[in-house]
């Protein structure tokens, strides 16, 4: 249980960190509630990137110059920082363009394995099944659709309920001995549902399935130990966790990465090349073809160190406060309907709502005019919104720099939406 002193520390997190974020120094005092899409960047991350560029940019793992050595050391130090943060080994962290790229790399690697280009453990064919959920982000759905088409496997999904949620019991019904892949989000970017990843991984492994975790909305916001969760692969993005854009991570168990064919091939991935064949380096280098996002990786390493300085337990505790506050703000307004878990359930610090009589895009523009930045649309989850019976929702999402005043501004502006558009009960 949180002690009074701890509670004060948790509640004061935004006050402690906001001065580190230049973008939050807005004369209007705008509330940035779109961190689930892209977080703001602290000056410590900007400074780390700038210091690397100022000291001299160089290629990594190529050449024997002193500049190359310095760049490679900084690049690999960032990998070690990220590995430590998520409970992985250094060689279990692969740099990618973003989480979408990471998920595609797994699916494309399995497609190659199915064509005979890798370990048969990842080969799929007719009669095999790929399982996802109806709540997935398109990035964790479309790659599996295409893998099913390429291999003849069947794509199945765990259905969601009317509120957009699903349970471990629903997954238990859907998993069977034909399931070869189970891919799901640790935290839904629409409903805020936190899936019991460790228990789900255990269920999937019991039937011989490979587990792929979309960790985009969990790694930035709560303590995550991928080894303890027991998943085979996980993906997350730098720009959602205080880092730069253009950098993401594919994390995989060492033996799983060693068995997965590389989806990208070319320079820096090989040991030997002939005119007819190639042999590849061990992970992670076998997956990192071409010129790498060195500056971005260094920025992500700095973002991880910043989050470690804050403390992920403190951050998660604060976000639980913010989740409750966002829920209360939305629930207090007539004609506003919340999707996702009820207030009594643990959920991420985001809330997606439907406002009676007003399209989500109009809601978002009105809130923006009142100094509250939110996300509107289907949030790259069209099947989920179709199941909810709506074209779009309005989503407010918080992070460590979100203040109580930000949430209050959201509540006040949300209450003004229907009267402004002339919608009456």
Key attributes of the depicted protein:
40% helix, 15 helices, 425 residues, 15 strands, single chain, Aspartate Aminotransferase, domain 2, seven-stranded mixed sheet, alpha/beta, globular, Aspartate Aminotransferase, domain 1
Description:
This protein has 425 residues and is of the alpha/beta class. The protein has two domains: 4-39 and 311-416, Aspartate Aminotransferase, domain 1 (Alpha-Beta Complex), CATH 3.90.1150.10; 48-308, 3-Layer(aba) Sandwich (Aspartate Aminotransferase, domain 2), CATH 3.40.640. Helix content is 40%, strand content 15%. The protein has 15 helices and 15 strands. Strands 2-8-7-6-5-3-4 form a seven-stranded mixed sheet, with helices on both faces. A four-stranded antiparallel sheet has the order 11-12-15-14, covered by helices on one side. Strands 1-13 form a two-stranded parallel sheet. Strand 9 and strand 10 (278-280) form a beta hairpin. The longest helix has 21 residues, at 66-86. It is globular, with a radius of gyration of 22 Å. Residues 1-5 have low confidence and may be disordered.
Spell out the blueprint of helices and strands.
Elements: H1 4-11, H2 13-17, E1 31-32, H3 43-55, H4 66-86, E2 93-96, H5 99-114, E3 129-133, H6 142-151, E4 154-158, H7 168-174, E5 179-185, H8 197-206, E6 210-214, H9 226-229, E7 233-237, E8 248-252, H10 254-259, E9 270-273, E10 278-280, H11 294-310, H12 312-331, E11 336-339, E12 350-355, H13 360-369, E13 372-373, E14 375-377, H14 382-388, E15 393-397, H15 404-420
Parallel strand pairs: 1-13, 3-4, 3-5, 5-6, 6-7
Antiparallel strand pairs: 2-8, 7-8, 9-10, 11-12, 12-15, 14-15
Helix pairs in contact: 3-11, 4-11, 5-6, 12-15
């Amino acid at each position: 249980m949180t002690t009074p002193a701890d509670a004060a520390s948790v509640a004061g997190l935004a006050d402690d960190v906001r001065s580190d974020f230049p973008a939050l120094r807005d004369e209007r005092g705008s509330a940035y509630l779109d961190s689930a899409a892209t977080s703001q960047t602290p000056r410590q991350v900007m400074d780390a990137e700038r210091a690397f560029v100022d000291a001299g940019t160089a290629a990594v793992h190529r050449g024997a110059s002193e500049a190359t050595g310095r760049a490679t050391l900084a690049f690999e130090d960032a990998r070690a920082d990220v590995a430590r943060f998520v409970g992985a080994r250094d060689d279990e962290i692969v740099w990618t363009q973003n989480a979408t790229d990471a998920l595609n790399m797994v699916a494309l690697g399995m497609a190659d394995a199915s064509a005979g280009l890798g370990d048969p453990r990842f080969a799929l064919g007719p009669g095999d099944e790929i399982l996802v959920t109806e709540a997935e982000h398109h990035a964790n759905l479309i790659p599996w659709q295409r893998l099913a088409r390429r291999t003849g496997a069947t794509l199945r999904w765990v259905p969601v309920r009317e509120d957009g949620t699903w349970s471990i019991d629903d997954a238990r019904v859907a998993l069977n001995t034909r399931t070869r892949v189970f891919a799901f989000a640790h935290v839904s970017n629409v409903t805020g549902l936190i899936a019991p990843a460790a228990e789900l991984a255990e269920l999937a492994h019991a039937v011989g399935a490979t587990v792929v975790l979309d960790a985009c909305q969990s790694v930035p916001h709560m303590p995550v130990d991928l080894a303890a969760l027991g998943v085979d692969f996980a993906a997350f993005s730098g720009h959602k966790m205080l880092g730069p854009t253009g950098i993401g991570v594919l994390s995989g168990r060492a033996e799983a990465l060693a068995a997965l064919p590389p989806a990208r091939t070319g320079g820096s991935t090989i040991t030997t090349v002939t005119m007819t064949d190639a042999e590849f380096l061990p992970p992670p280098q076998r997956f990192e073809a071409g010129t790498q996002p060195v500056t971005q990786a260094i920025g992500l390493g700095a973002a991880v160190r910043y989050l470690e300085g804050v403390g992920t337990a403190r951050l998660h505790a604060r976000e639980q406060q913010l989740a409750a506050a966002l829920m209360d703000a939305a629930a207090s307004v007539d004609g506003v309907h919340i999707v996702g878990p009820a207030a009594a359930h643990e959920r991420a610090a985001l809330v997606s709502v439907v406002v009676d009589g007003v399209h989500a895009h109009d809601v978002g523009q009105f809130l923006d005019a009142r100094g509250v930045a939110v996300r509107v649309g289907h949030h790259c989850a069209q099947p989920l919104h179709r199941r909810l019976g709506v074209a779009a929702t309005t989503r407010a999402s918080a992070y460590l720099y979100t203040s109580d005043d930000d949430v209050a501004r959201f509540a006040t502006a949300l209450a003004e939406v229907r009267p402004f558009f002339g919608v009456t009960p």
